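Request: Mind sharing a record?
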Amino acid sequence: QVQLVESGGGLVQAGGSLRLSCLVSGRTFGRYAMGWLREAPGKERESVGGISWSGDTTYYADSVKGRFTISRDNAKNTVYLQMNSLKPEDTAVYYCTAGLLLRQYNYWGQGTQVTVSS
């Protein structure tokens, strides 16, 4: 069983930064590709990006490219989402996800709210 717990969400002004963390339980964290998705009221769920199990490969949505960075520390069973130059349209609940293949995720965290004020 894989459990994911996000943290680091909150309220920030436009132009600010936040770093989300996702702690993954289990001894096989290093086998999993990890992704971040977000859901905003009235909008479709959006894939923010992801990272391979080794950390060698990352991908990002066009809407966040150049502003967001995904990284992982396999020794700490943790994946990070560094968000810079935040915009009000980044406001959403952010979910950490995991799966054996990149872009194919089977496990979800409970989500953390990010609110960006203008």
About this structure: The longest strand covers residues 92-99.
